[in-house]
Amino acid sequence: MELITEKQSLWEYLQQSKKPVVLYGMGDGALKIMAVLKQYQIPLAAIFASDNFVRGHSFQGFPVLHLADVEAKFQDFIILMAFAIHDDGMTQYIRQIAGRHEFYAPDVPVAGENLFTMEFYRVHEEQFQQVYGLLADEQSRRVYRDILNYKISGKLCYLQSCQTTVQEAYANILRPGEEEIYADLGAYKGDTIEELLTYTGGRCKKVIAIEPDRKNYKKLLATVERLGLSQAVCCNVAAYSQKGLRLFASKAGRQSALSSAQGVETPVDSLDNILNGEPVTLINMDVEGGEKEAIEGCAKTIAAYKPKMLISAYHRSEDLFALPLQIHALRPDYQFYFRHYQYIPAWDTNLYCV
């Protein structure tokens, strides 16, 4: 099956368009999009922000405008969204703007350098097709097709088309019980542990929680204590392929990640080392682009016990094919599912292995 139905990448379309291109938002996402615009020699006409973020300041030499200012300045223009949202109110607001103006949310990778273009897809088309053939249900196939087409086009319609809920995935795919031995790689403040317990009657047999950020780790310990998880093992390390030290860039929220260029030297370890041969039944993995190495560090556990897995598959452009094929090589008897939850851009696109 031809997975990509879009005929042209967003960047190629913008090169050919005569409309002014304006950026909605500031910060790291805006910088990444501006770099791609420069690479494709696409001029940027203006930058605007939500009204409560406009304070008469500038960003990268552009005055930060209100949307009303842009509407007054240009009769017709293209908006590129440069930040991430998932709450209902802001999502509805974005869709209202997209109903009035030509609007795209460009896909730029959270980690890595590979931009998802038509050329990138064609180079890896055989691997995408291989993964598509491994998918276990029609919803997974819909998610896969829609996310690929979104990444090429930046069109919001694809994200809305394939969206489901966390509850559906727990109920129909993971189906956790109170005897779970749960390993949480990138446990943050313990929110995903608490989420799991809502589906197991508040109980599980054991928790192994791995979180490298020191501030988050302290909050994780507090959450574990509040939940009364006496069998919890918490490790202040980054999930990796082996034991050692790596640079770790601590950022706000969930965005902290291992880095090759900057950060604080931080202990890393593999789940295999931490478990030392003990079993787990369920692994949750959200390690901000380090999933490949973290899976390498789970290889013995995966091969021996075939735990159910929930893995973030949106940080790198190659995640949609590389991660499932990596796991398939370890245990060909896994069934693979993809789900996407309400998020713009295509964050919270997850791989499930059971």
List the helices and strands and how they pair.
Blueprint: H1 10-16, E1 21-24, H2 28-39, E2 46-48, E3 58-59, E4 62-65, H3 67-73, E5 78-81, H4 88-100, E6 102-104, H5 118-123, H6 125-134, H7 138-153, H8 156-161, E7 163-164, H9 166-174, E8 181-185, H10 191-197, E9 206-210, H11 214-227, E10 232-235, E11 238-239, E12 244-249, E13 257-258, E14 264-269, H12 271-275, E15 282-285, H13 291-296, H14 299-305, E16 308-312, H15 319-330, E17 336-341, E18 349-353
Keywords:
354 residues; alpha/beta; 8-stranded mixed β-sheet; 6-stranded mixed β-sheet; 15 helices; 18 strands; 39% helix; globular
What do the pLDDT scores average to? Answer: 94
Instruction: Calculate Rg over CA atoms.
Output: 21 Å
Strand content: 15-25%
Largest sheet: 8 strands, mixed
Shape, principal axes of CA atoms: globular
Helix content: 25-40%
Structural class: alpha/beta
Tell me the number of helical segments per DSSP (H or I, 4 or more residues long): 15
Q: What strand order characterises the main sheet?
A: 7-17-18-16-15-8-9-10
What is the terminal separation in angstroms? 25 Å
Number of strands: 18
Low-confidence stretches: none
